[in-house]
Amino acid sequence: MVSRRIDPEAGRTALASWAVAPEAAGRAVLAPAVRHTLEMFAEEYPGGAVELRVPPFAAVQAIAGTRHTRGTPPAVVETDAASWLALVTGDLTWEQAVADGRVRASGERSDLDELLPLPGPRRTVRTARESIPEERR
Questions:
Q1: How many structural domains does the chain have?
Q2: What is the pLDDT of residue 19?
Q3: Would you say 56 and 78 are in contact if contact means Cβ atoms under 8 Å apart?
Q4: In the predicted model, what is the mean pLDDT of residues 45-65?
Q5: Count of CA atoms in the C-beta half-sphere (13 A) of 3
Q6: Is the distance from CB of 46 to CB of 1 less than 8 angstroms?
Q7: Which DSSP letter does residue 3 get?
């Protein structure tokens, strides 16, 4: 079980802010949005076989399998904040992120193609974008 370190409502609010203006999102928006979605991913896919890193904001262990306690994990997925949020919300496919070099994945179980996007963040983003006036879209 993942222990929550961020208020879920604060995470959803940050994710919605990112959704309507991703290019303008600064650290105050990216940090809670990334932490919230990483926590959601780890709740949905509990375990310790893969370490997901989104520096400098957060890292979680997820996905069932061999758990590591010291040293380099058996599988690592690392990406930047914008790419992670795009992946988790469905704005970017895993295949495209890997092909573009926006994600680095190594080790067993590090292919997250079948696990992304997550329904909750996807819904949050869709709702936020629907609230944008037609002339601003």
A1: 1
A2: 97
A3: no
A4: 94
A5: 1
A6: yes
A7: P
Q: What is the pTM of this model?
A: 0.92
Question: Cα–Cα distance between 8 and 40 in angstroms, integer?
Answer: 9
Mean pLDDT, rounded, for 34-52:
95
112 near 94, Cβ under 8 Å? yes
Instruction: Specify which residues 23 forms β-bridges with.
Output: none
Rounded to a whole number of angstroms, the distance between the first and last alpha carbons of the chain is: 39
Say if 1 falls within a structural domain: no
Phi, psi of 71, rounded to the nearest 5 degrees: 75, -160
3-class DSSP state for residue 117?
coil
For residue 104, what is the domain's CATH number?
Answer: 3.30.1050.40
Q: How confident is the model at residue 137 (pLDDT cuts 50, 70, 90)?
A: low
Q: 23 is in which domain, residue-wise?
A: 8-136
- Which residue in the block uniquely carries the two structure tokens 């997925």? 77
User: Could you tell me the two tokens for 109?
Assistant: 């179980």
